[in-house]
Amino acid sequence: MIWVYYACIPLYFFGSFRWPLLVAGLALELVYLAGRGLTLGRLPLIGPQDTLAFFSCSVALMSIPFVFSRELRGNRSFSWGCGLMAGLFALLSLPFPTLNMPLPPVLDTYWFELHVALAFFAYALFGVAALLGGMYLNGGGRNLLDLQYRAALVGYTMFSLSMISGGIWGYYAWGTYWLWTAKELWTSILWLYYSMYLHLRIKGPAWDKAFAWIGIAGFLVTLFTYLGVSMLMRSSHSF
Fold it and tell me: According to the UniProt entry, where is the signal peptide (predicted)?
């Protein structure tokens, strides 16, 4: 099945300026993840290889509603940007080994899988929002800011649900809803950051450029929460 995964990467990188090829890349990546899931008997969400692949797929999947939106229909820059982002994270996953062991007992619950899947969907939407903010700063219309806000709002909602399901998972796993780990602290920082960011929208047109820039910076905070904390800090759950 790994050849299916290899095949989706060039589709993302070199063909996604046309949306049918972006969809084709997404379809191949979904086939790969489904095949791994059936082989493992669980969602492939353990270790950097699987999580980067899942993140890549989430970026492509979350971009599809925007690709077909009235504001972006026919916009090759957006589909190419999403394909580039999805392809980059898929490529980053390749040096890491796949982890094929069964879930440890502490992770063997639907709450864990729901928590992680929602988090990655939210991360992907924060990435889409950052891309839309960059397109606005590059001379796009104000409607791109409205789309940026919608992407971040839906991502924020999913992220909030991820935190709730993560707390329930933590209670079943460790007997507490909260552990003072680096991952949980940065998750809270990310949630507070986007709470602030979404409230800035009410300040009106004078803050449009700042709103776009803060949305872009938010994706950097997202990447640090996901990758930076996992690689640089000790935590009870790194990936």
Answer: none
